[in-house]
Amino acid sequence: MIIKSITLYNFRQYKGEHKIEFSMDKDKNVTVILGINTSGKTTLIQAFNWCLYEKCSFKTREVINVEVVKALTINSVKEVSVEVVLIHEEKEYIINRTQSFTKNDSGNVRASRSNINVQFKESTGGMQSIPKLKSGSDQDLYIKETINKILPESLSDYFFFDGERISDINNRGDVVAAVRGLMGLDVISSAMDRLDPSKASSVTSKLSNELDIGNDQKNIKYKTDLEKAKKQLETHQQRKKTAREEIEFFERQKDELTALLLANKDAKENQKRKINLEKDIEIISKNIVSAENRLRNDFSTSAMKFFALPLIKKALLVIDDAKQDAEGIPEMRAKAIEHIIARGYCVCGCDLKKNEGAKENVLHEKSLLPPQHMGTIIRTYKQTYKRFEREALGFDAIIKDDFSNYQNNITLLGEKEDALSAISKQIKGRLDVEKIERDYQKNEKDLKDKRELLIKIMSDIKFTESEIASLEKKIESLTLVSEKNQKLTKSIAYSRAVYEWFKQGYDRQEREVKEHLLESVNNIFEKMYHGRRKVTINEKYQINLITMVGDEATSTDESKGLESVKNFSFISGLVDLARTKARTGSAIESEESINIIGENDELIVSTEAYPLVMDAPFSNVDEIHINNIARIIPEVAEQVILILMKKDWEFAKTALENKIGCSYYIEKNGNSDTNSSIRRT
Known about the structure:
Elements: E1 2-11, E2 14-21, E3 30-35, H1 41-53, H2 66-70, E4 77-88, E5 91-103, E6 109-111, E7 115-121, E8 127-129, H3 141-150, H4 153-159, E9 160-162, H5 175-182, H6 185-195, H7 203-209, H8 217-263, H9 265-322, H10 334-343, H11 356-367, H12 374-427, H13 433-478, H14 483-528, E10 533-537, E11 543-549, E12 552-555, H15 560-580, E13 612-615, H16 623-636, E14 640-644, H17 646-656, E15 660-668, E16 676-680
Parallel strand pairs: 3-14, 3-15, 9-13, 13-14
Antiparallel strand pairs: 1-2, 1-4, 4-5, 5-6, 5-7, 7-8, 10-11, 11-12, 15-16
């Protein structure tokens, strides 16, 4: 597949018609498109994807140019379209997708369903259209099949890609499907599915069902049980596939979470410190409230006595000088004596009416009591002031202790808050490591559960396969000898043999593909990167870097730039694989007309070279590696289309000067973000 041109009409920033013709020269196979930010570089990648697959990263109404939409009048119609012209298997295809936009009476803009047309040029020079279905929900079915045969949608992200997202390119879950689709192995896999004797819907099973084993109920039950067992096996196989996909997902999650934990191990300690500081602040804040209450209570209780202490001391001196401290009965009052005299007998029982001497003594005591006698009052005051003095003398120490405790807590709170503020700034914007660890533990449990489930499913599959083999053996022993059964038995044997031949060839081909891809990626990586590192490829076609220390290989952390170089090597390896791995043989037109047998009875996979269309390919790569990558890519790809900023182009220019067949510049019209033009330079 080689891209001849792309024409945009009212698509995003490109108001009106804009056409880019790409270099198809084998020696000068690079087309360079330069532009500044927001000028419409990424839009070109989006245009390819929208035209071919009707997919893009923006909403439908955002496909059309903003200025064109604003100019729409009521009930007027404007169109947006993208046309891609390409060469595939020496045949020219014109793929055009159009969409209409109308402003209704309410002023709302409505988008019609997009319309796609595909034409190809016949050997006579005439144009032939790919037909559409006359009815049905998917009228463009034939067109979609044609486009997917040219470049399967599952592969598109590997050949039309955003360089800023290149770090994700090798961690996608569809890498295996992409590689198999690229090499045509998916077609062989489909053929195997149709012959697989373990599947109830396969040709082999259908032939087996036609065998005549008589009308005996037992015989009929064998056939019914066999069909049921095969369907059960298909269910188990699907469950196995799902379980493996889930295990792969959880394994990828584990790798990602492990990388996050390693990258943020310092944040974990900081988060622990932050949690401890928050707990300390909560405790200290409570202590401050307690200290405030204690200070308030102690002050309220003794403050008046403390501040009155000088007056109390002076009052005590005055009392001592007064010489009026007669000794009356403490707490006794004159009214109490009057009550005793009035009732006529003393508290001791003495009759005061008959004993005048006793009465005189009682009256004397009355004279010593307030309000008649000042000495008693003064003595009471003196005792009270002495008590106040004792309490006031301890007040100073209590208040000092309370205030010191309060002040220490305030100081400690300030220190903890400062530490919390500093550590919060360090943590701000960082990932929640505690959450990552919880996610990691949950992922580990899920992974363990899925692995255990897979073991059980594999056991179920083994049991069901044994059951199928047993039933087939029983049916075979009951098969009636007839011409029809002889033909069916022969056909079944052929079908099984072809299936096994396919399987052996498929396994060999996939092994060779992986070996070739590993060799190609390593060769390319060595040219792009200078150092003692190598690439490994696992069963999911994901690549990892290892560092050679002497003769030993060890895994090491990867920088952003190194990761980009690794992934560039992978993509370049895929392109090289598509170009060099293909074997001779006719193109695969459909599953019904597969030509996959070579001269030596080998399976043949048919594929073509693919272009590389890259937006911002050097975003995360340093200038040395930019030069290396730019030098290698034109060697492995039949066609290279680079969409990049001028600053990145300066580093790549030297390596690509002799490979440039076409160059363009995207410029904003009037510095507008909604109106750009493409001019050839």
